[in-house]
Amino acid sequence: MTRKSTIQSLVDPMPAPSQANPRVEAPARHNFTQATQTQSTQTQTTPTMEADGFSSDDRVTRIKGFAPRVAAWLETLQAADLEIVRILSRTARSRAPRLCAIAISKLGNGWFYLFLAAALFVRFGWRGYRVILLAAVNAAVVHFLYPRLKRRYRRPRPFKVDPELSSLLATLDEHSFPSGHAMTLTAVLTPIAMLWPAMAVSGALMVSCLAWSRVATAHHYPSDVIAGAILGLGLGYPISAGVMSIW
Known about the structure:
By secondary structure, the chain is mainly alpha-helical. The chain has a domain at 74-245: Vanadium-containing Chloroperoxidase, domain 2. The protein has nine helices and no strands. The protein has helices spanning 3-11, 22-45, 56-90, 95-124, 128-153, 158-161, 180-195, 199-216, 222-245. The longest helix has 35 residues, at 56-90.
């Protein structure tokens, strides 16, 4: 090689890199975009696994499958409730039990509490007014609550569900759940039994008799009076304990 050609080769610029063939690059870009979209779609459609091993879709399916079982269980409970009302209503068919059921229910409207107040004055003297006031506070609380519960649940009374059942006396309101009679009596008797333990057995007997009369007159289901007694005790006990702690 001559000296001139060597210098010329050093001076000449390097050849420009060849441009990529657009016909080859376009399919590659298209394949990459399609793969990214496919992966994103699979990520969105893959169900999320919870800590207990069930996906969110499985959980929804399980909840939907559980609802019919709850409905069937409630229907069975309602049928058993109504059957017990039929059985107990037969115990009040003859004259004496029928009059007894009516009398107990009417006493539970308010007259019974006058006799109870008199018994407290006999037992505690003038100090009995404090027990009476505490029982009155409990009664006021439950009377504020149970009408709202009845309007919330709107459970029809047994004699309106079964035409063969007859109401033995007029009702004070339209709905049955919970039993206001059982709720009020339990709430009133709670502070009395706390301050006068000898009344606990007598109080339980009073609540039982009232519960029988409310079911025998076809005004309530057994679950109504049980719920009323539980609510009366659940409200009456903490109120009574709290007030007595500051006396």
